[in-house]
Amino acid sequence: MGGSFKVAVWPGDGIGPEVTAEAVKVLEATDVGFEFLEGIVGGKAYVEFGDPLPGEAREACEETDALLLGAVGQDYAPYDVPRKVMTYLRVEKKAYANVRPLKLYDGVETGAFIPDSGIDVVIVRDNSEGFALAHEGYYWEDKGYDKRVITRLGAARNATFKYVKKASGRPV
Protein backbone atom coordinates (compact mmCIF):
# COMPACT_ATOMS: atom_id res chain seq x y z
CA MET A 1 0.00 0.00 0.00
CA GLY A 2 1.21 3.52 -0.79
CA GLY A 3 0.84 6.49 1.55
CA SER A 4 -2.02 7.13 3.91
CA PHE A 5 -4.22 10.22 3.68
CA LYS A 6 -7.12 11.65 5.64
CA VAL A 7 -9.86 13.07 3.44
CA ALA A 8 -12.80 15.14 4.67
CA VAL A 9 -15.91 14.26 2.66
CA TRP A 10 -18.65 16.87 2.45
CA PRO A 11 -21.42 15.38 0.27
CA GLY A 12 -23.56 18.51 0.65
CA ASP A 13 -26.81 18.88 -1.28
CA GLY A 14 -28.48 17.96 -4.55
CA ILE A 15 -26.38 15.55 -6.61
CA GLY A 16 -23.45 15.98 -4.19
CA PRO A 17 -24.05 12.83 -2.08
CA GLU A 18 -24.30 10.65 -5.20
CA VAL A 19 -21.15 12.12 -6.76
CA THR A 20 -19.04 11.94 -3.60
CA ALA A 21 -20.11 8.34 -2.89
CA GLU A 22 -18.82 7.31 -6.33
CA ALA A 23 -15.62 9.35 -5.92
CA VAL A 24 -14.93 7.60 -2.60
CA LYS A 25 -15.35 4.22 -4.35
CA VAL A 26 -12.76 5.27 -6.95
CA LEU A 27 -10.29 6.35 -4.25
CA GLU A 28 -10.84 3.12 -2.30
CA ALA A 29 -10.03 1.11 -5.46
CA THR A 30 -6.47 2.52 -5.52
CA ASP A 31 -3.50 1.14 -3.61
CA VAL A 32 -3.32 4.34 -1.54
CA GLY A 33 -4.61 4.23 2.02
CA PHE A 34 -7.42 6.68 2.74
CA GLU A 35 -9.32 7.52 5.90
CA PHE A 36 -12.57 9.37 5.21
CA LEU A 37 -14.18 11.80 7.68
CA GLU A 38 -17.67 12.81 6.59
CA GLY A 39 -19.17 16.18 7.46
CA ILE A 40 -22.60 17.68 6.93
CA VAL A 41 -22.57 21.07 5.14
CA GLY A 42 -24.81 23.23 2.98
CA GLY A 43 -28.61 23.22 2.98
CA LYS A 44 -28.80 19.93 4.83
CA ALA A 45 -26.63 21.30 7.65
CA TYR A 46 -28.63 24.54 7.70
CA VAL A 47 -31.88 22.61 8.19
CA GLU A 48 -30.38 20.22 10.76
CA PHE A 49 -28.17 22.61 12.76
CA GLY A 50 -29.17 26.14 11.69
CA ASP A 51 -25.67 26.64 10.22
CA PRO A 52 -24.50 25.66 6.70
CA LEU A 53 -20.96 25.09 8.02
CA PRO A 54 -21.11 23.52 11.50
CA GLY A 55 -17.99 23.52 13.65
CA GLU A 56 -17.70 19.72 13.46
CA ALA A 57 -17.41 19.80 9.64
CA ARG A 58 -14.88 22.65 9.79
CA GLU A 59 -12.79 20.78 12.39
CA ALA A 60 -12.78 17.63 10.24
CA CYS A 61 -11.52 19.70 7.31
CA GLU A 62 -8.74 21.21 9.44
CA GLU A 63 -7.53 17.72 10.45
CA THR A 64 -7.31 16.25 6.94
CA ASP A 65 -4.98 16.29 3.95
CA ALA A 66 -7.72 16.95 1.41
CA LEU A 67 -11.41 17.75 1.00
CA LEU A 68 -13.89 16.07 -1.33
CA LEU A 69 -16.86 18.44 -1.77
CA GLY A 70 -20.06 17.44 -3.55
CA ALA A 71 -22.34 20.47 -3.97
CA VAL A 72 -23.87 23.07 -1.67
CA GLY A 73 -27.18 24.88 -1.88
CA GLN A 74 -30.70 23.60 -2.12
CA ASP A 75 -34.07 25.21 -2.71
CA TYR A 76 -35.22 24.40 0.84
CA ALA A 77 -32.47 26.60 2.36
CA PRO A 78 -31.90 30.37 2.04
CA TYR A 79 -30.20 31.67 -1.12
CA ASP A 80 -26.94 32.59 0.63
CA VAL A 81 -26.36 29.21 2.36
CA PRO A 82 -23.61 28.12 -0.09
CA ARG A 83 -21.75 31.41 0.42
CA LYS A 84 -20.59 30.54 3.97
CA VAL A 85 -19.19 27.17 2.88
CA MET A 86 -17.52 28.52 -0.26
CA THR A 87 -16.12 31.61 1.51
CA TYR A 88 -14.48 29.34 4.09
CA LEU A 89 -12.87 27.25 1.34
CA ARG A 90 -11.91 30.10 -0.98
CA VAL A 91 -10.68 32.62 1.58
CA GLU A 92 -9.72 30.82 4.79
CA LYS A 93 -8.38 27.63 3.13
CA LYS A 94 -7.01 29.57 0.13
CA ALA A 95 -8.61 27.25 -2.44
CA TYR A 96 -8.62 30.12 -4.91
CA ALA A 97 -8.12 28.33 -8.21
CA ASN A 98 -10.91 26.64 -10.14
CA VAL A 99 -8.89 24.36 -12.43
CA ARG A 100 -10.64 22.78 -15.41
CA PRO A 101 -8.46 20.67 -17.69
CA LEU A 102 -9.92 19.74 -21.06
CA LYS A 103 -8.40 17.22 -23.43
CA LEU A 104 -10.02 15.66 -26.47
CA TYR A 105 -8.83 12.08 -27.00
CA ASP A 106 -8.77 10.42 -30.42
CA GLY A 107 -11.62 7.98 -30.94
CA VAL A 108 -13.83 9.34 -28.14
CA GLU A 109 -17.28 10.42 -29.32
CA THR A 110 -18.22 13.82 -27.92
CA GLY A 111 -21.74 14.16 -29.27
CA ALA A 112 -20.74 17.55 -30.66
CA PHE A 113 -19.21 18.52 -33.97
CA ILE A 114 -15.58 19.00 -33.02
CA PRO A 115 -13.04 18.15 -35.70
CA ASP A 116 -9.83 16.39 -34.69
CA SER A 117 -8.18 19.50 -33.38
CA GLY A 118 -5.88 18.25 -30.64
CA ILE A 119 -7.70 20.19 -27.92
CA ASP A 120 -5.57 20.13 -24.76
CA VAL A 121 -6.12 23.15 -22.54
CA VAL A 122 -6.29 24.04 -18.87
CA ILE A 123 -8.68 26.79 -17.83
CA VAL A 124 -7.98 28.47 -14.48
CA ARG A 125 -10.63 30.74 -13.00
CA ASP A 126 -10.21 32.68 -9.78
CA ASN A 127 -12.56 31.57 -7.01
CA SER A 128 -11.82 34.27 -4.46
CA GLU A 129 -12.70 37.52 -6.21
CA GLY A 130 -15.51 39.12 -8.15
CA PHE A 131 -18.56 37.01 -8.81
CA ALA A 132 -17.25 34.16 -6.65
CA LEU A 133 -17.67 36.17 -3.44
CA ALA A 134 -19.89 39.14 -2.70
CA HIS A 135 -17.66 42.18 -2.28
CA GLU A 136 -20.37 44.63 -3.18
CA GLY A 137 -23.66 43.31 -4.36
CA TYR A 138 -27.35 42.92 -3.97
CA TYR A 139 -29.04 39.61 -3.30
CA TRP A 140 -32.66 38.68 -3.56
CA GLU A 141 -34.41 35.41 -2.90
CA ASP A 142 -33.49 33.85 -6.24
CA LYS A 143 -30.96 36.16 -7.91
CA GLY A 144 -28.11 38.52 -7.23
CA TYR A 145 -25.93 41.25 -8.64
CA ASP A 146 -22.24 41.69 -7.93
CA LYS A 147 -19.47 43.91 -9.25
CA ARG A 148 -16.52 42.07 -10.77
CA VAL A 149 -13.40 42.74 -8.70
CA ILE A 150 -10.04 41.64 -10.09
CA THR A 151 -6.88 42.46 -8.15
CA ARG A 152 -3.27 42.20 -9.25
CA LEU A 153 -2.75 39.46 -6.61
CA GLY A 154 -5.75 37.44 -7.82
CA ALA A 155 -4.72 37.64 -11.46
CA ALA A 156 -1.04 36.90 -10.78
CA ARG A 157 -1.55 33.89 -8.55
CA ASN A 158 -3.78 32.24 -11.13
CA ALA A 159 -1.42 33.03 -13.99
CA THR A 160 1.43 31.36 -12.12
CA PHE A 161 -0.58 28.53 -10.60
CA LYS A 162 1.76 25.52 -10.47
CA TYR A 163 -0.75 23.10 -11.94
CA VAL A 164 -1.05 25.14 -15.12
CA LYS A 165 2.69 25.07 -15.71
CA LYS A 166 2.89 21.36 -14.96
CA ALA A 167 -0.14 20.42 -17.07
CA SER A 168 0.72 22.56 -20.08
CA GLY A 169 4.47 22.11 -20.03
CA ARG A 170 4.65 25.72 -21.23
CA PRO A 171 5.29 28.96 -19.38
CA VAL A 172 2.14 30.93 -18.61
Care to describe what's here?
By secondary structure, this protein is an alpha/beta fold. It has two domains: 1-95; 96-172, no CATH class. The chain has helices at residues 16-28, 43-49, 55-62, 81-92, 152-159, 162-168; strands at 4-12, 33-38, 66-71, 97-103, 120-126, 137-139, 144-146. A three-stranded parallel sheet has the order 2-1-3, sandwiched between helices. Strands 4-5 form a two-stranded antiparallel ribbon. The protein has a two-stranded antiparallel ribbon with strand order 6-7. The longest helix has 13 residues, at 16-28.
Nutshell version of this structure?
By secondary structure, the chain is an alpha/beta fold. Helix content is 32%, strand content 24%.
The portion of residues assigned to helices is 25-40%
SSE class: alpha/beta
Following the backbone from N to C, one meets helices and strands in this order, namely EHEHHEHEEEEHH
**pLDDT average, as an integer?**
80
- Rg value: 18 Å
Distance between the termini: 36 Å
**Oligomer kind:** single chain
How many runs of DSSP E, i.e. beta strands? 7
The residue ranges in which pLDDT falls below 50 over 5 or more consecutive positions are none
Shape: globular
- Helix count from the secondary structure assignment: 6
Number of domains: 2
Largest beta sheet, briefly? 3 strands, parallel
Please state roughly what percent of the residues sit in beta strands, choosing from under 5%, 5-15%, 15-25%, 25-35%, 35-45% or over 45%: 15-25%
Strand order, biggest sheet? 2-1-3
